[in-house]
Specification:
Distance between the termini: 34 Å
Low-confidence stretches: none
Largest sheet: 4 strands, mixed
Structural class: alpha/beta
Radius of gyration: 16 Å
Mean pLDDT: 94
Number of helices: 5
Strand content: 15-25%
Number of strands: 6
Helix content: 25-40%
Strand order of the largest sheet: 3-2-1-4
Shape: globular
């Protein structure tokens, strides 16, 4: 059984989802793939995991490194889980490229290459935005492309973290807006 709770953030309403093992979802209202991993049968209620997540988010939106994450229960293919694990290792206020993640996945798998596009698909389907920091992933040319919550939110999240945005830019056209 999954449970949900709403959180009002400075960037819009967020839906939190959890099961008995941990947080399973965190989506901005209206984002791409909104509630994609949420069971059709779920109940809105307050749980300790949601209280812990609220404190984490309050700290985060206060501009602070919120520290250890609430317990997560991520579900996906082994490839997606590997990408999401790398995302979880990106430090607060830092960025990494899709290509760097692809090279790390290839290294871990003992492969020559992993397509950056495959990494982009896994990053885009991350069900726990912010806490699994997919907003910290940028294009190799500095493009702030590919955030399911929207480019404007991605910019605001990176600015909140005081990330070095020198050389980063929001694309003006393309399919990953």
């Amino acid at each position: 059984m999954q449970y949900t709770h709403l959180y009002r953030s400075p960037l819009g309403m967020i839906t939190l989802a959890a099961d008995s093992e941990g947080l399973t979802g965190l989506w901005f209202e209206g984002q791409k793939y909104f509630a994609a991993t949420l069971d059709a049968q779920h109940e809105e209620t307050m749980l300790p995991i949601f209280e812990q997540t609220r404190r984490w988010l309050d700290n985060y939106f206060g501009g602070n490194d919120p520290g250890p994450t609430p317990p997560l229960h991520l579900q996906g293919s082994p490839f997606r889980l590997a990408v999401w694990e790398i995302l979880r290792q990106i430090p607060f206020g830092k960025t990494i490229t899709y290509g760097e993640i692809a090279r790390e996945i290839a290294r871990r798998q003992g492969s020559k290459t992993v397509p950056a596009q495959a990494v982009g698909g896994a990053v885009g389907h991350n069900p726990v935005s912010i806490i699994v920091p997919c907003h910290r992933v940028v294009g190799s040319n500095g493009s702030l492309t590919g955030y399911a919550g929207g480019i404007e939110r991605k910019v605001r999240l990176l600015a909140l973290e005081k990330a070095d945005m020198t050389g980063l830019f929001a694309p003006q056209k393309g399919t990953a807006l």
